[in-house]
Amino acid sequence: MSKRTVLNLKELKFHLTPDQVVTDSDLLTLYGQDWLKQWNGKAGAVVFPKSTEDVVHIVNWAKSHKISLIPSGGRTGLSGGATALKGELVVSFDKMNHLSDFNPVEQTVLVEPGVVTQTLQEFALERDCFFPVSFAAEGSSQIGGNIATNAGGVHVIRYGTMRQSVLGLEVVTGEGKVLNLGRGLIKNATGYNLMNLFIGSEGTLGFITKALIKLLSPPPKDPLVFLFSVENKSHIPKLYQHFKTQIAPMAFEMFTDKALNHVMESSDAVFPLENRSPFYILMEIEESDKEKAFDLFEKALNDNLLQDGTLSQNQTQARELWKFRENITESLSEHQPYKNDICVRTSVMVEFLDEVEECLKKQYPEFEVIWFGHIGDGNLHINILKPKNLEKDSFLKQCEKASAILFSLVKKYQGTISAEHGIGLLKKPYLNYTRSEEEIELMKKIKRVFDPDGILNPGKIFDL
Amino acid sequence: MSKRTVLNLKELKFHLTPDQVVTDSDLLTLYGQDWLKQWNGKAGAVVFPKSTEDVVHIVNWAKSHKISLIPSGGRTGLSGGATALKGELVVSFDKMNHLSDFNPVEQTVLVEPGVVTQTLQEFALERDCFFPVSFAAEGSSQIGGNIATNAGGVHVIRYGTMRQSVLGLEVVTGEGKVLNLGRGLIKNATGYNLMNLFIGSEGTLGFITKALIKLLSPPPKDPLVFLFSVENKSHIPKLYQHFKTQIAPMAFEMFTDKALNHVMESSDAVFPLENRSPFYILMEIEESDKEKAFDLFEKALNDNLLQDGTLSQNQTQARELWKFRENITESLSEHQPYKNDICVRTSVMVEFLDEVEECLKKQYPEFEVIWFGHIGDGNLHINILKPKNLEKDSFLKQCEKASAILFSLVKKYQGTISAEHGIGLLKKPYLNYTRSEEEIELMKKIKRVFDPDGILNPGKIFDL
To answer: In this complex, which of B107, B181, B188 lies closest to A416 when CB atoms are compared?
Structure first.
């Protein structure tokens, strides 16, 4: 940060308590980066608002001094969306983490952006409700970040993404205006829906200071888990259709045998199916759907849509089965994988996968590519493992080229280059693989409407 | 329309077939108005595009000649949103009414904007799916209009509004650009969600030329209908909570005894409950929830939350019970009611209703006020009946004053002045009772982003 900014920091401190403005070097590094750690981010300073008024004050101060602000949640992002590469002022919502106003009639709760996802899940369960958004980083990701990236996870096919859980948002725009959007109204036909514009905008239009979250009830009781083996890739969408049209699975996850290999190598788990197969499906269902699901399973087995399967007999077994899917990411970490998180429509997924595999095999025969994902919503996680003998930089460069190939195919199949991680910095060069030039132009104009001085998370998603 | 416009019409006709541009006086009147018929609208001409290309052509032509365009669907609107009061060119989507690309894996269908709601419902049922948006005007309302106003109806508490059924939109902006938004992707974290901005924008940002609609399955089998009588208004939200936390009702509708009086007078139906009561609840549930619902009903009866009730024993009875709620609007029509369609959060509804009733009784003791609505989502329809001895104009003027009182209370309770009918022309003066001045200012700026020449449905929602 320039000297002038340091001077201005004093002015900022004047309106806040000493613990709210931090410049310790360790913390500047911590708050300058996200989980990806691809860039050497470092904040110029970190400020911790405790209220909406604090956020308004910070934004107004930043606006008058043309200071860039980076919003910061749990920093579990994987696209550089919350990184500070130019010594910007990081606005951390760690101290805005209250839950209040639980409404038992409407089953809503008002949360501040710094509330950790898991805290909200537990809060809901204590009130005989549940919060359905669930994913690997839920122990540290924050609700504000979840909303800013429209987080998804494993239960999207049944309960939707974060967007479907938000009934209201209080935001502070780049002009320091407080908007109170949505306000818990299920129906409201009074002009443009600004609330949905903020969901997924990665902190570039405004900072979320409160969210009214819809909880669901009753919590699913003792969900059951099926694990199927599938020989033929083209059967996967058929299987999904087969189950989905009769019951409502809560999760429908796919992983490959290659992915399973890594999980098996890194644990002493016993795989419950007799024979291995190229693909596996993990399906979570409600207890009440058990009989119907079992009939459908038998029919699929007879029709040769799947080869084998097992059903959890208790919650311990259900958790054990989930681990084969959940432990993939961790089991790959030693290979420093290059991750991509794309989405195509379920019905074209097989064709898309075939073409991607053929392309990558031809161009990068030495790369091991691991697929897994949320088949039910078309979201695939692609991990390219770093060969041991390849330097990290050289590997990253080759992966970026591989990404361009992958993204061209995503474009061809009208998919998206980011299903749930966001664009941030990582995918900025590829935004036009998913969004048209007209759309990008319109997005830039909308950015200017809400943040005319360009102080909110500048350089993320696109450059102005 | 000015002479110059007439000249330009020839130029427009040059690119279209003769049946696509109409200037018959009867049709100009028909297409200049909506169901409300509060204004003497008359189109300058009506144009019937048959394709997206036609719409682009019309918009570009209008843009270069500064002609205002009014989008027109089933014209079942009740807020003047699709009226032509200044001889504008009406763009009717009657000839863009194809359904295509049914996708059995994803259960989606591509519809043109002129598809009638009921046609889509039937299309879905023929494919073992269902389309959940259902309301009185479904026999003539069109999907384009449903999206443009984010239509709701009776099943919102279970399946959401139109917004939740849209997975993709093709729109033509005021600059004649074609945007292909959403594209069926359930997850897509690549910048701002423009699709949701168009849903509910009443044709002021762009014209919808295609929509990818999500269908659901399996269709609910033989839904059951409960009819309860409730003595105490304050028990209504409690009843909703009581049932909602254990089962998932498909509809939870309320009407007053006054409303029932009108239905009974205008039909020979036999009311199935022994005693009359000030309030009634109609609850629709799935067959699979029958036992649970019955237990909950008995518990509510014991706790004195409701006084009496009946459960349909077959589909004929279910339909008969629905009629007590569905026939209210028709039974009131001879009284030329002044309608309002507001929404408050369910948990403050009773308090709100008490205050509104007290106010109206004091100010307009001669008015009969009929309430009914979708309690589950807080959406109340308020009908003020015209006293026989009062002239229509004088009645309307008094109602407008009554609306101002009502809307002040809506504002006080942070509700909305329009739950599902939209702002159009009718509620334009009251927009700031629900949206803040900052929001209205931002909406105007967004309008200019998508429609810089202000040719798309100008003067609706707000004036620029």
So the answer is: B188
Chain B contacts in chain A segment 388-447 (CB below 8 A): 414-423, 427, 431, 434-436, 438-440, 442-443, 445-446
User: Is A83 a residue whose pLDDT tops 60?
Assistant: yes
Q: Is A191 on the interface with B (CB under 8 A)?
A: yes
Whether the pLDDT of residue A375 is over 90: the answer is: no
Using the predicted structure, report yes or no on whether residue B4 has a pLDDT greater than 70: no
Q: SS3 of B213, please?
A: strand
Report A:26-65 residues touching B (Cβ under 8 A): none
- Distance separating alpha carbons of residues B70 and B228, to the nearest angstrom: 44
Q: State the pTM of this model.
A: 0.95
pLDDT in tens, A253-285: 999 999 999 999 998 889 999 999 999 999 999
> How far, CA to CA in Å, does A41 sit from each of A11, A45, A71, A205, A464?
25, 12, 14, 22, 21
**Phi, psi at A209, each rounded to 5°:** -115, -20
Greatest CA span in chain A, whole angstroms?
Answer: 74
Nearest residue in A to B188, CA atom: A419
C-alpha separations of B393 from B80, B82, B399, B430 in Å: 18, 23, 10, 20
Q: Which of B189, B196, B439 sits opposite A418 (nearest CB)?
A: B189
Are A420 and B187 within 8 A, CB to CB?
A: yes
Q: Is the pLDDT of residue B3 over 50?
A: no
Per-residue pLDDT for A1 more than 80? no
Q: Is the bond into B113 cis (omega within 30 degrees of 0)?
A: no
ipTM given for this complex: 0.95
pLDDT at B7: 44
- Mean pLDDT value across residues B373-398: 91
- Tens-digit pLDDT profile for residues A165-199: 999 999 999 999 999 999 999 999 999 999 999 99
* pLDDT for B38 beyond 90: no
Residue A26 pLDDT = 95
Residue A162 has pLDDT above 50, yes or no: yes
pLDDT in tens, A386-421: 999 999 899 989 998 998 899 999 999 999 999 999
In the predicted model, what is the mean pLDDT of residues B199-214? 98
Query: Which chain B residue has the Cα nearest residue A128?
Result: B245
Q: Which are the contacts of B134, defined by CB distance < 8 A and separation ≥ 6?
A: B117, B121, B153, B154, B155
Q: Identify whether the C-beta of residue B254 lies closer than 8 Å to the C-beta of residue B376.
A: no
- Using alpha carbons only, give the angle B232, B236, B240 rounded to the nearest 5 degrees: 155
CB contact under 8 A, A416 and B346: no
CB B421 within 8 A of CB B77: yes
- Sign of the torsion angle spanned by Cα atoms A439, A445, A448, A449: negative
Q: Indicate if the pLDDT at residue B13 is higher than 90.
A: no
For B289-327, b where at least 16 C-beta lie within 10 A, e where not — what string? beeebeebbeebeeeebbbbbbbbeeeebbebbbebbeb
Closest in A128, A187, A446 to B446, CB measured: A446
b/e B144-174 (16+ beta carbons within 10 angstroms → b): bbbbbbbbbbbbbbbbbbbbbbbbbbbbbbb
The tokens describing A325, both together, are: 């899917």
